């Protein structure tokens, strides 16, 4: 169980991920969480900086699918100005949203990575699938009480994980 909670890579933000290195590892598709990974959970639309980052990913020959446990409304609004694959109401850490995303990306577990801010959804789900897992520090921690509660457990786990590659 413990290993399933440990990301392969742990970085401060999405912008610190070395895309070149991911390509070298044979990664072809990225599954990316939205809330607190790309933007603060209360930010409605994708900012220019994030859209530029999507372009940078694609310029490396990688494709992206946004996978969020949040509602269809949230995901549709967030992506209304961009063309990108999405899976909403995803129920991470279950496997089905990962499988759906990989079918869009036309990738499999050997060449897919997930980027997210939560150990119990993004990292656990990715590790259960056997894909490469990247944890980022959450953008904003002011959240619903349940998430705050979950964060306390996460901090306990994180104390045992060093930033960088595992
Ligand atoms: Mg998140």
Helix content: 25-40%
Bound molecules: magnesium ion
The major pleated sheet works out as: 7 strands, mixed
Beta-strand content bin: 15-25%
- Helix run count: 6
Extract low-pLDDT stretches: none
CATH architecture tag: 3-Layer(aba) Sandwich
CATH superfamily: HAD superfamily/HAD-like
Gyration radius from CA atoms, angstroms: 14 Å
Distance between the termini: 16 Å
Q: How many separate domains?
A: 1
| Average pLDDT taken over every residue | 92
SSE succession: EHEHEHEHEHEHE
Shape: globular
GO molecular function, one term: phosphatidylglycerophosphatase activity
InterPro entries: HAD-like_sf, HAD-SF_hydro_IIIA, HAD_sf, PGP_Pase, PGPP1/Gep4
Organism: Senegalia massiliensis
Protein name: YqeG family HAD IIIA-type phosphatase
Task: Explain what the structure shows.
It comes from Senegalia massiliensis. One of its GO terms (cellular component) is cytoplasm. The chain is of the alpha/beta class and about 170 residues long. The chain has a single domain, classed as Rossmann fold (3-Layer(aba) Sandwich). The protein has helices at about 20-25, 50-60, 70-80, 95-105, 120-130, 145-160, and strands at about 10, 30, 65, 85, 110-115, 130-135, 165. The radius of gyration is 14 Å and the shape is globular. The model has no long low-confidence stretch (mean pLDDT about 90). Magnesium ion binds near residues 33, 35 and 36. Magnesium ion (MG) binds near residues 33, 35, 37, 117 and 118.
Quick structural summary:
It is globular, with a radius of gyration of 14 Å. Helices cover 36% and strands 16% of the residues.
């Amino acid at each position: 169980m413990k290993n399933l909670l440990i990301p392969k890579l742990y970085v401060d933000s999405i912008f610190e991920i070395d895309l070149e290195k991911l390509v070298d590892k044979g990664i072809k598709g990225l599954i990316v969480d939205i809330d607190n990974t790309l933007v603060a959970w209360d930010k409605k639309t994708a900012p220019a900086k994030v859209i530029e980052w999507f372009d940078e990913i694609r310029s490396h020959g990688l494709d992206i699918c946004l996978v969020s446990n949040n509602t269809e409304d949230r995901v549709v609004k967030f992506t209304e100005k961009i063309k990108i694959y999405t899976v909403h109401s995803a129920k991470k850490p279950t496997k089905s949203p990962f499988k759906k995303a990989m079918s869009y990306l036309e990738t499999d577990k050997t060449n897919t990575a997930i980027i997210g801010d939560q150990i119990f959804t993004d990292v656990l789900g990715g590790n259960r699938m056997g894909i490469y897992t990247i944890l980022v520090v959450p953008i904003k921690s002011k959240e619903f009480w349940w998430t705050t509660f979950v964060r306390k457990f996460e901090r306990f786990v994180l104390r045992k994980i060093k930033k960088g590659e595992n």
